[in-house]
Design a protein that fits this description.
It holds the Pfam family TauE. The chain crosses the membrane at residues 48-69, 78-98, 104-122, 143-173, 193-215, 235-253. InterPro entries: TM_pro_TauE-like, TSUP. Keywords: Cell membrane, Membrane, Transmembrane, Transmembrane helix, Transport. The protein has 258 residues and is mainly alpha-helical. The chain has one domain. It has ten helices and no strands. The two termini are 29 Å apart.
């Protein structure tokens, strides 16, 4: 239906590989992959970029999740339950995506991200080691924030979802960075399924483009997951801060200079 040049496909595949690596380590690969799709497909409605992005991300995130589950101490039952809640919220966010005024949301998201960055910088031990008792109240709060709130945002916009999830799981459930990142992958798989289901139903997924991009995204995700497991929480923390700064810069550019 739509012709895409070989050069555009090649560039998008490279972007997908890098996004898969970022997503596997800490989340936020959409910061790179979604803008790449929007730029590479300038003549298509934005919904096609959003839908194709979800299809690609699902494969890469699933590959990273399988790697983490084999080697990281993940509470699979908790992650899946949170993922189901997030998937339903993500589908709801995707439903409203066409009518969202992103110019209104960007400043709020930037403030939240800057607060996250400041907190991580000022708390060097944040996410280095688990500790503390997880009460029922904290667990319910985690489901509300990570499952409902961040899940809805993932379907609505998407970029930065993984980073938000990691911070929420570390702060609310006392996880270390690696375990939080691993749990995030399981939740992200569910949110991607929720949003992708709606985009696919609307016919807004370019499957012929999504397949090669997914292969590259999966490769990047596998490499990123192995690096995170090998290098530990300190490495994940550095990548998280870098991703947050990059996301704030991208949102600021979209808000005031694009």
């Amino acid at each position: 239906m739509y012709d895409i040049s070989f050069t555009a496909v090649a560039v998008l595949c490279v972007a997908a590989a890098l996004a898969g690596w970022i997503d596997a380590v800490v989340g936020g690969g959409g910061l790179l992959q979604l803008p790449a799709l929007l730029i590479g497909l300038p003549h298509l409605p934005p919904a096609y970029a959003l839908g194709t992005n979800k299809a690609v991300s699902l494969v890469g995130t699933a590959a990273a999740a399988s790697t983490y589950l084999r080697k990281a101490p993940v509470d699979v039952r908790l992650a899946c339950r949170m993922g189901v809640v997030a998937a339903l919220s993500s589908a709801g966010g995707a439903f409203f995506a066409a009518g969202v005024n992103s110019a209104v949301l960007r400043p709020l998201i930037m403030v939240l991200l800057l607060c996250v960055a400041a907190f991580v910088v000022l708390r060097p031990q944040f996410g280095q080691a688990p500790g503390g008792v997880v009460t029922r109240r904290r667990l319910l709060t985690a489901f509300a924030v990570a499952g409902v709130g961040i899940g809805f945002y993932d379907g609505l916009l998407g970029p930065g979802t993984g980073a938000f999830l990691v911070i929420a799981l570390v702060a609310l459930l006392n996880m270390d960075m690696v375990t939080a990142s691993a749990t995030t992958k399981v939740v992200n798989v569910c949110t991607n399924i929720g949003a992708l289901s709606l985009f696919a139903w609307q016919g807004a997924v370019l499957w012929k483009l999504a397949v090669p991009m997914a292969v590259f995204n999966m490769s990047g995700g596998l490499v990123g997951a192995h690096m995170a497991l090998k290098r530990g929480s300190g490495f994940v923390r550095i990548v998280l801060l870098t991703t947050v700064v990059g996301l704030v810069g991208k949102l600021a550019y979209d808000q005031w200079w694009s």
